[in-house]
Amino acid sequence: MHAGTLDDTYFSDENNKQWVGKTSHWAEFSSIGCLGTIHRNNTDVTQAIAGFMPAGQQNDKFKNGGKHYAIGLALAGTKDADKLNKLIDILNDNAASNNEPLVHGACLGLGLIGYASADLTLVERLKTFLYCEKATIGEAAGYAIGLIMTGKIDDDLMNELIRNCYENSHEKIVRAIALAVGLMCFNNEEQADKYINKLLECKDHVVRYGGALAIGMAYCGTRNNRALKKLLSLTASDV
Predict the structure, then answer these.
(1) Alpha-carbon 114 to chain mean position
(2) What share of the chain is helix, strand, coil (3-state, %, to 5)?
(3) Among 79, 117, 167, 180, which residue's CB has the most CB atoms within a 10 Å radius?
(4) Contact 111, 144 (CB under 8 A)
């Protein structure tokens, strides 16, 4: 309701402060993260969020993870170099830590700010987290790669991601990679077909789920009859 209005008074209202303050774990992550939607395009979003993180909670891993996610949502697609570098520094500092909510939020923030930039340097940095075998971190890295590469088909990266879809044992990561491939297919129509088919041929239903989404992304807004027929066929043939 308040997206892009910069009006966060709902959160600062005395009656609402109580339940906002009581949130914990991933609910806490989300309650801070959604401030990014409210503060869309606000370059002072970091300062706006600081008011909702009392002094004693500055090191809270879920709040900090939510903060990085919020900054990403607020500045999505801006490719703000300063914010990107800060998030990369956070990822570098926490590469070996078990602070999963923080890394999860920083990966999402990186993907959102770098949206559709096709910056392969950022993708290479995110691969470290995609392949780290921690489901929560790998999931965020997968989504981030998809966001950065939206609409851009890179053959080597596509084949690498699809291969990892087949081999990875973490459902969260597989789902994120499948969706990343779908995002890369965006508006690419027939160019995306060979990758879509690879997803649809997989025995893992989560990968096939990504293939169905990839059809929608590749042919978004085209009214392509062949793509619609393929999707209708899937509704009848794939449980």
Answers:
(1) 11
(2) 70, 0, 30
(3) 180
(4) yes
Q: How far apart are CA 45 and CA 65, in angstroms?
A: 15
- The pLDDT tens digits along the chain (239 residues) read 999 999 999 888 888 877 777 788 999 999 999 999 999 999 999 999 988 887 666 678 999 999 999 999 999 999 999 999 999 999 999 988 889 999 999 999 999 999 999 999 999 999 999 999 899 999 999 999 999 999 999 999 999 999 999 999 999 999 999 999 999 999 999 999 999 999 999 999 999 999 999 999 999 999 999 999 999 999 999 98
- 204: exposed, middle or buried (Cβ count in 10 Å: 0-12, 13-18, 19+): middle
Angle (CA) 203 151 155, round 5°: 60
- Has this prediction a pTM greater than 0.85? yes
How far is 12 from 237, CA to CA, in rounded Å?
Answer: 50
**Residue in the structure block whose two tokens are 């053959």:** 155
Amino acid identity of residue 85, one-letter, is: N
User: What is the H or E stretch that residue 32 is in?
Assistant: helix 25-33
Q: What is the DSSP letter of 5?
A: T
